[in-house]
Amino acid sequence: MSQIQQAFEICYHGFSADRVVVDPELNFRFVAECRKIGLEEPVATLNRKLLNLRKRGLLSGHKTVQRTSFPDGNDYQFAAEIAARFMERRSEMTLDRILCDPDFAAQFDESAAKIMPGYSRSSIAGLH
Q1: Taking a C-beta distance cutoff of 8 angstroms, is the pair 22, 51 a contact?
Q2: Angle (deg, nearest 10), helices 102-115 and 43-55
Q3: In sequence order, what DSSP letters do the residues of 26-81 get, joined into one string?
Q4: Torsion of CA 53, 54, 59, 65, to 10 degrees
């Protein structure tokens, strides 16, 4: 098991790797666990490594039992889509790169909030 997998196992609390990356509280815990075991890469790198493990099927032993819901997601979905496309085209970056990097994620939130006041990633996902 890799160190990234070890950190994920400690802090995922039944949520998906994607949720761990985008939920500020879960991501803080994940990064803190990475630091405890000696990983010093930037947060964006740690997050990308986690998503790459998921994409390669290497987190299949960590079942997602906590589902993420989007109670008002339809109200904000268009703002998130427009903000994502804007950033992808302007900066030639993928959505994964935007969401894995806290600075880019903050820019994403700011762009979406300009389109739909009150938007935040946590407001649409019911993250707490």
Answers
A1: no
A2: 80
A3: HHHHHHHHHHHTT--S-HHHHHHHHHHHHHTTTTTTS---S----TTHHHHHHHHH
A4: 150
- What tokens were used for 104? 């880019």
Number of neighbours of residue 39 by Cβ within 10 angstroms: 17
CA distances from 51 to 32, 44, 74, 112, 118 (A): 17, 11, 25, 23, 28
What is this structure's pTM?
Answer: 0.82
The full set of domain ranges for the chain reads 3-55, 73-125
Mean pLDDT in order along the chain per 10 residues (128 residues): 94 94 94 97 98 93 76 74 90 91 90 78 49
Longest dimension (CA), the chain: 43
